[in-house]
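#help-structures

NK: newbie question. if I give both the sequence and a SMILES, will the prediction place the ligand too? trying with LNIPZVSO
OV: yes, paste both and it writes out the complex. here, I ran yours:
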Amino acid sequence: MTQYSRVSGSVGLITLKNPPVNQLSAVVRHGIVDTVQKALSDPKVKSVVICGQNGMFCGGADIKEFQTLANMRGPPLIPMIHSIEAADKPVVAAIEGGAFGGGLELALGCHYRIAHSKAKVGLPEVTLGLLPAAGGSQRLPRLIGVPAALSLITTGRHITAAEALQLGLVDQVADHNTVDAAVKFALSVAGQSLDARRISNFQCPPVPNMDALFEDVMQKVRTTARGAIAPIACVQAVRAAATLPYTQGMQREKELMATLFTSGQARALQYCFFAQRVVGRWSMPSGARWDTSKGRPIHKAAVIGLGTMGRGITVALAQTGLSVVAVETQEKQFMEAKKAVSNMLERGAKRSGKPLAHGKITYSQSLQAVADVDLVIEAVFEDMGLKKKVFQQLSAVCKPGTFLCTNTSTLDVDELASQTHQPELVVGMHFFAPAHIMKLLEVVYGPRSSPELVAVVMELGKKMGKVSVAVGNCRGFVGNRMLKPYRDQAYFLLEEGATPQLIDQALEEFGFAMGAFKVSDLSGLDVGWKVRKEEGLVQPGGGSGKSARIRNGVRYSPLGDLMCEQGRFGQKTGRGWYQYDKPGSRDARPDPWMHSFLEEYRARHGLVARRISNQEVLERCLYAMINEGFRVLEDGIAAGPEDIDIIYVFGYGWPRHRGGPMFYANMVGLEIVLERLEHYAQANPDMPTLQPCSLLRKLVASGSPPVNKWKEVIKNVRSQL
Ligand SMILES: CCCCCCCCCCCCC[C@H](O)CC(=O)SCCNC(=O)CCNC(=O)[C@H](O)C(C)(C)COP(=O)(O)OP(=O)(O)OC[C@H]1O[C@@H](n2cnc3c(N)ncnc32)[C@H](O)[C@@H]1OP(=O)(O)O
Ligand SMILES: NC(=O)c1ccc[n+]([C@@H]2O[C@H](COP(=O)([O-])OP(=O)(O)OC[C@H]3O[C@@H](n4cnc5c(N)ncnc54)[C@H](O)[C@@H]3O)[C@@H](O)[C@H]2O)c1
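OV: that's the protein plus ligand as structure tokens.
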């Protein structure tokens, strides 16, 4: 909807009204067309202001309308914006809150733009698998120049009003009432010529060596896109703006959009947009929910253990403005941590332009220092005995009602809770390394965890800029539990004839930031080795005879154990699945040693190497992971497929343009995933993780409903358990 009124005698004021973000749904487009017409035909109106209600100009096209073309009735955006630009009375956009996508394109069709100092603007279509196709790709480069437009359009980043003013994207920044400022401005420009204000008439400012610039940008975009097509189309559209007359550029924009609009990538990215919001509306099996559970404020927090994770967590907490008590018992670590935290904070302040959060942190070598904090995050070694002791101490030292959280990546949160006087005040806060940078936070509730605590931690995650996902307690929670069968398949494929490079290449071509073996080298092979030793799975020399590759009746690959026996821990030792120039170096190169190592191993176990195709790598690794994802859903550990997908996109480098593992399964076709799992399970009866789980079978039997309908089938499956 839109509202129209005449203000200050001669200014037509059009207000967009469409909660939550004044998105340009069909009804709004109708309203704009009608009210613009009204203003232009009223002789008393000399100029026009367009603004949005509730402190938000416009969040762009209504993304929900994109689900089907049939939804897209109503006046199209492009002619609507053209008619505003062609108006013979000045039209001023009053931008409060933000102008994004189609919202900014609407503002670019206006003759002037005034933004509030706290407003942000951007063309984020690329993040939805699209390009700015209501003239944005053609008008923005004409207004602010090709390099700046490329930077905004290919990344989709939001910029501040100050940056927009500097770029010439807005004409004025207002500190107080933006609509009042825009009305005043509109009065002052009434009657003036608009010839120099219609951006579609502009030429792009000349760029020296244009071809080289576009080649360079295209090269960079291809590298970072990891197979996403929208960023490439964005470069092509801007190139059209730079090289073609406006009308032909618009035609090119339309053609490129037609390709993107119906693509699977656009569907996946738009699914991710909504999934990210769905996971914020968490629920627990007890029925407790985000909208009925209230947290309480946290003023002071503590971190126990200042190793890799504790340092990052301390920084993330301090950056929210909280007071933090940071505890480390080992002298050397204590001194190093202080320095490292201070460096990280300085770098963060430089990056964000925000003031340093140094003063908020106090360091201690004694647990007694946490007596008066509201919330503790434990990040000591992954050792159940040690963690139990720490939780007993915390329970004795902390004031009653203190929330106790653990950053364990695999251990039983409920077992830790049972060490305390108030087990309902214990949850897992599973951060990812580096904890001050990585966006994901798995919030792990146990059967006794209070909804109040989950609400507190979800809110704290948000303040730290994390995407928080509430999940149930089981070994590895959601992310690491699903990673295990994926990694196992990668090892089995090595035994059967693949190389680390072959497997990683297939996974990276699929879009993963790094293949399984590069990730393993980065995080350190010794981490998993230690866990497997504690579980009694490791045998010296990998074991011998038929049982060497079997543990607890299922297939086991001792390859990782053998690598560790040789001191090949990955990047930290300069040798792992790849070789590195020196310990700590990141440039992975294939190691000829690996060839003889694998040949010897296969000979010892009577294995004959065969050719492994990329298809087999993807199917075995990804479908094993997806199958475990169905088990996670069946067990009620994740509330829905969106939770799993967001965990994988934000925590495990899953390519966002493929929507997450469960969305991907839906795109491939559940019946195909089921058929391929059955095929591989039959060929490998010693790999139970390849046996299709009953929820997958049930979904296929229910006609493979789309991913947003799975919850209904899951509810039925759970009620039968
Ligand atoms: C053969 C076929 C040929 C077909 C050719 C078709 C041609 C079609 C021509 C189309 C022309 C293209 C026009 C344009 O270029 C395309 C676009 O504009 S795409 C949209 C671009 N905009 C965005 O990406 C902005 C998205 N929103 C945000 O980033 C944020 O919401 C915000 C605006 C910064 C506000 O952030 P917050 O305050 O944190 O709020 P939330 O994010 O939590 O959102 C609140 C609520 O609003 C919902 N929502 C937000 N934006 C939109 C939107 N644009 N459309 C619909 N709904 C939106 C969001 O989902 C939340 O609701 P909830 O999900 O929680 O219910
Ligand atoms: N490293 C990762 O990538 C990662 C990712 C997610 C979660 N985690 C989890 O985070 C936790 C910490 O892992 P890390 O990699 O930071 O370990 P780390 O070995 O780097 O650091 C652990 C720190 O805890 C300190 N410590 C031990 N006992 C202590 C005590 N009683 N009081 C105070 N400090 C004590 C140690 O001195 C050490 O500095 C583990 O549970 C791990 O599973 C690690």
